[in-house]
C-alpha cells in the first residue's frame, strides 16, 4: 500500500506554519512543487497523496492517517487514479468538516468546461500547470504567496 509522504520544509525567516496537502500522482510534478516551496519564508509541511482515495482518507483521518494534521490548503490535480479530482473536490466541499479548507485546482487542463465545473463544485481557484520548469516554479510561488501571505485562512479546531 502506498502511504502519504510528508516533507517538512523549514527556513530561518519563518512567517507561519502551514500544512499543505498536495494531491498529485505524477512524482515529477510533486518534486517540482516541493522544490518551489523549499525557498519559502513559511514553515510548510507538505503531505503528498498520490490518488483520490488516499487524499480523502488523509483528510478524514482514516487509517493509516489517524494522527494526520488537518491541512490549511489543498493543491488538487484533476487527473488522479482511483478517485479523480472531481470526486475528491465534490466530497471535500460537501463535508461540513472539510469544506472550509481552500482547494486550489492545480492541473494541466485549460479547458473552459473544466474551469467552469471546478468553480461550480466550489473550488477556491483554478491554476493551470505550466509545462516549463521555471514557469512552474513561479506559479507555485505565486500560489504560496497569495494563500500564505495575503489571505487569511480559517483556523480550525481539531476534530
Overall description:
The chain has helices spanning 27-38, 52-59, 85-94, 112-120, 133-150; strands at residues 5-9, 17-23, 43-49, 73-76, 103-107, 125-128. The protein has 159 residues and is α/β, with parallel strands linked by helices. The protein has a six-stranded mixed β-sheet with strand order 1-3-2-4-5-6, with helices on both faces. β2, α1 (27-38) and β3 (43-49) form a beta-alpha-beta unit. α1 packs across α5 and α2 packs parallel to α3 (85-94). It is globular, with a radius of gyration of 15 Å. Mean pLDDT is 84; it is low at 6-15.
Brief digest:
With 159 residues, this protein is an alpha/beta fold. The protein has five helices and six strands; from the N terminus they run E-E-H-E-H-E-H-E-H-E-H.
Tally of extended strands?
6
Structural class of the helices, strands and pairings?
A: alpha/beta
Number of helices: 5
Low-confidence stretches: 6-15
- The N- to C-terminal Cα distance equals 26 Å
Dominant shape: globular
Order of strands across the biggest sheet? 1-3-2-4-5-6
Proportion of strand residues: 15-25%
Instruction: Report the helical percentage.
Output: 25-40%
N to C succession of SSEs? EEHEHEHEHEH
Oligomer state of the chains in this structure: single chain
Rounded to an integer in angstroms, the radius of gyration calculated over CA atoms is 15 Å
Give the biggest sheet.
6 strands, mixed
Mean pLDDT: 84
Amino acid at each position: 500500500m502506498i502511504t502519504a509522504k510528508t516533507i517538512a520544509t523549514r527556513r530561518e525567516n519563518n512567517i507561519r506554519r502551514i500544512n499543505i496537502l498536495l494531491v498529485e500522482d505524477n512524482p515529477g510534478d510533486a518534486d517540482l512543487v516541493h522544490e518551489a516551496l523549499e525557498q519559502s519564508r513559511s514553515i510548510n509541511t507538505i503531505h503528498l497523496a498520490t490518488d483520490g482515495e488516499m487524499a480523502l482518507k488523509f483528510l478524514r483521518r482514516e487509517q493509516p492517517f489517524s494522527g494526520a494534521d488537518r491541512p490549511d490548503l489543498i493543491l488538487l490535480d484533476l487527473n488522479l487514479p482511483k478517485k479523480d479530482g472531481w470526486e475528491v473536490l465534490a466530497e471535500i466541499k460537501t463535508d461540513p468538516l472539510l469544506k472550509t479548507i481552500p482547494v486550489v485546482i492545480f492541473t494541466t487542463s485549460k479547458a473552459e468546461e473544466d474551469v467552469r465545473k471546478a468553480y461550480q463544485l466550489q473550488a477556491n481557484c483554478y491554476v493551470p500547470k505550466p509545462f516549463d520548469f521555471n514557469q512552474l516554479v513561479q506559479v507555485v510561488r505565486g500560489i504560496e504567496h497569495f494563500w500564505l501571505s495575503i489571505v487569511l485562512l480559517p483556523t480550525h479546531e481539531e476534530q
